[in-house]
Amino acid sequence: MHLKGCLTKLREARPLVHAITNYVTVNDCANITIALGGSPAMIDSKEEVTEFVRLANALYVNIGTLREEQKESIYLAMDKASELEIPIVLDPVGAAALKSRLMMVKDLLSRFKVACLKGNIAEIKCIAERDAKASGVDSLERGEGVELVTAELSNYYKTVVVATGPKDYLSKGEKTYLVNNGSPLLGRITGSGCMLGIITGAFLGSVDNDLKACLAATVTYGVVGELAEKSVRQSSDLGSFRMKIFDHTASLTEEILCDAEDYYEYK
Predict the structure, then answer these.
(1) Residue 60 and residue 20 in contact, taking contact as beta carbons nearer than 8 Å
(2) Average pLDDT over residues 256-260
(3) What is the pLDDT of residues 45-76, one digit of tens each?
(4) In this structure, what CATH number is given to the domain that contains residue 115?
């Protein structure tokens, strides 16, 4: 699957991504969306989400710091987005650590039309009712068996499943891709997965093929991570690394992204 044109489409469309996300990483999510070429809106009031989601090109839902009002807002927004066929990205943060979150994620997947379920390997395995190792919201998994799990979940919930880790797996039905680019420094900053989640929403809001959109987002974020790592003096410069992510996202070109095709393969 070729990714040529995906970035251009996104920047021409400037998709509005309605994000109901966690307060730890909300600023990073907003900044990377703008750097990529999209437009973020962090609206999670239950009085406003139903009205606002009508305006959006995609909805990104992240349960990292779940509050009761936010939980109500998530159900309201996902219900309206499903009705209007606005693509939804669901990020099941902490589902491998807390049973209540796991049950909520399964309920959301059962009730609503989700375009992409994106989580770390431990979260994805738990949703598929497999044993998984996690420490809080972080995965301790290395990827064993995840290829089969992503395909099973994709078929069961009729969605693209993205499992992130040392290598990333994406699956939709019988099609599964392995993405092996990125930087180990991405795992050392807060919000890495959240930023991938919201740019996945931006691609879904502008590219009409769900699997291609998710693949483009995953490869893009990996490329940006690699470029950012090369730009810092040493691996301990995590603050500089975070800022370089935004710099290289903003300066990313179609040519750079297309050159990354060696980084992913059809399984």
Answers:
(1) yes
(2) 80
(3) 999 999 999 999 999 999 999 999 999 999 99
(4) 3.40.1190.20
Which residue's entry shows tokens 């939804």?
A: 88
What domain range includes position 79?
6-266
CB 95, CB 127: distance < 8 Å: yes
Give me the chain's average pLDDT, please.
Answer: 91
DSSP 186-198: GGGSTTHHHHHHH
Q: Distance (Å, rounded) from C-alpha 59 to C-alpha 62?
A: 10
Q: Is residue 1 part of a domain?
A: no
The token pair at 161 is: 């499943």
pTM of model > 0.90: yes
According to DSSP, the residues that pair with 170 across neighbouring strands are 162, 177
Task: Write the burial class of residue 41 (CB in 10 Å: 0-12 exposed, 13-18 middle, 19+ buried).
Answer: middle
Domain count, the chain: 1
- Would you say residue 137 has pLDDT above 60? no
Helix ranges restricted to H, the chain? 6-13, 26-36, 49-53, 68-84, 99-111, 121-127, 146-157, 192-204, 210-231, 238-251, 254-258
What percentage of the chain has pLDDT greater than the value 90? 77
Tell me the two tokens of residue 175: 């099609």
1 pLDDT higher than 90: no
Q: For the chain, how are helix, strand and coil distributed in percent, rounded to 5?
A: 50, 15, 30
Distance (Å, whole) CA 20 – CA 40: 10
